Amino acid sequence: MRLLVCVLISVALMVVDHRFSLVKDLRSALSVVVYPIQYAVNFPLTASGWMSESFTTRKTLQQELDSLKSTQLLNAARLQKLAALETENQRLRQLLDSSFKIGERVLIAELLAVDLEPFTNQVVINKGSNQGVYDGQPLLDAHGVMGQVTQVGPLTSTVMLITDPNHAIPVAVNRNGLRAIALGTGNPNKLEIPHFPNDANIEVGDLLISTGLGGRFPEGYPVATISQIQQNPGQPFALVIAAPTAKLRQSREVLLVWPQTTNEPTQPSATTAPATADQEAPQ
Amino acid sequence: MTQAIRPRGGFVIIATFVVALLLTILPLPEWMVKFRPEWVALILIYWCMALPQRVGIISGLVLGLLLDTLQGAVLGQHALALVVTAYLTNRVHQQVRVYPMWQQALSVMGLLLLYQLLLLWVNGITGTKSQLWLYWLPTLSSTLLWPWLYLILRDIRRNFGVKG
What we know:
A: alpha+beta; 6-stranded antiparallel β-barrel; 6-stranded antiparallel barrel; 3 helices; 12 strands; disordered C terminus; B: mainly alpha; 8 helices; 75% helix; globular
């Protein structure tokens, strides 16, 4: 009798969770219950990080500082160039009367070192709805797009990586703007791009960037580089495999992005700007 | 068992389950992940066998929901599998308890295979792909682990005087 009731509860939960996503509240409540467990598993890593930081010698710190300074100098130099390019780009876009998104809000999150089910590509991060994380929010690391938030709890959220078999992301070839969809394969180093015709203008090494189509991911972030193209004359489409640029297995610090969904001209000029454009200063 | 005697050592049972949950999500090297034993199922089977009047279907349901949340699975997937496992273990506990160790391990393997099969079904229905042969490795490692786990948990149980 109790067996029947419990089985029914489980099945009902599964159906409701899978089909209608109605049990979000239960899920986020449970995620608070299991947070101590995740924290405990993560603790040795945090502690060892803290220890090694506390006990490094002055010399090592000095060296690190030096290298950081030189990197900073390099980055600053690049940034100057970028600023010039950005203004030029904006000016050109304004000439074309199109909008350009700039200054997305970001938040740095950290992965909790937990392994989820081995055949799904998911990770847990230490930010939740208390920090304003929302369902479907894109996640980046220093090298590219990592994935999107699928479940939000008050303290933690679960992120589906772009390599999950259930994940797809709209991309474009950076070189010529050819659009495609990149599907996850379950293998953390592989994305599959179906529906590239055999004669499509693609090469191994081409960078795929996010297009922002679909409104979920911000535009223009690197997603993957094409690693293998197999043309099969018998098939209408080539088999194209790409490797994610984000370090899905290594990054611990990740960026949560709030993409700006409204398209607004950044510097409305007298000739082209619509009257209602609200100005947003680039940060 | 009369009502007058209060069950003892509930915290020991809970502690073993917490350890099982910890071990389930503990980061392991890449090659070892595939062999990760089904800790929660194993420990649930043990307690269902040792104290069937205290640990059973309800414990399975609660543990399953926690496990679902921890592993990011469809809510209810592990709950279903653990409920069925707990029920069957409760049914057969009197026979399995007196089996010699290797026979006991085989029975546990049977229970775990069913557990994994239920999970696989749900995976199939919800459209999560898995590599078929690698999928069954945890059952093997769990079965090999059973005799040791059994001895350790029995010692823990006797040491703390956990009774039904």
